[in-house]
Amino acid sequence: LTYTQPDATQSQKYQDRIEKLKLSLEERNYSKLTSNLDTTPKDDAALSSMLYASSVGMNMIVAPISFGVLMYFFAGKLFSWMFGEKYDATRREGQLNIH
Fold first, then answer.
1. C-alpha to C-alpha distance for 10 and 86, rounded to whole angstroms
2. Residues 91/97, Cβ–Cβ less than 8 Å
């Protein structure tokens, strides 16, 4: 039994294959490492700040209006509860009671 050295073309193919396998192993390990990272793009900061500012502005407009409407509908009941029939009688003098 004697050892015969492989020719240069087979050795080069073997080295290329080993290199390719090492690169694919490295790529596989890297993709495993980075698979749990969040890749979704962040929202635009300017857009989110404009949405926040507009929602604050809308709340500044809507909150007093809704409070005023609430008080308009419940103020009569509240005042008649606090001041009794005296308030109710002054409200009804010569007017149509719609409540």
1. 112
2. yes
Predicted model pTM: 0.38
pLDDT, block means (10 residues), the chain with 99 residues: 71 88 95 82 78 90 92 78 65 59
CA angle 25, 29, 31 (to 5 degrees): 115
Contact between residue 85 and residue 78 where contact means Cβ atoms under 8 Å apart: no
Task: Kindly write down the DSSP assignment for every residue of 25-62, as one continuous string.
Answer: HHHHHHHHHHTTS--SPPPPHHHHHHHHHHHHHHHHHH
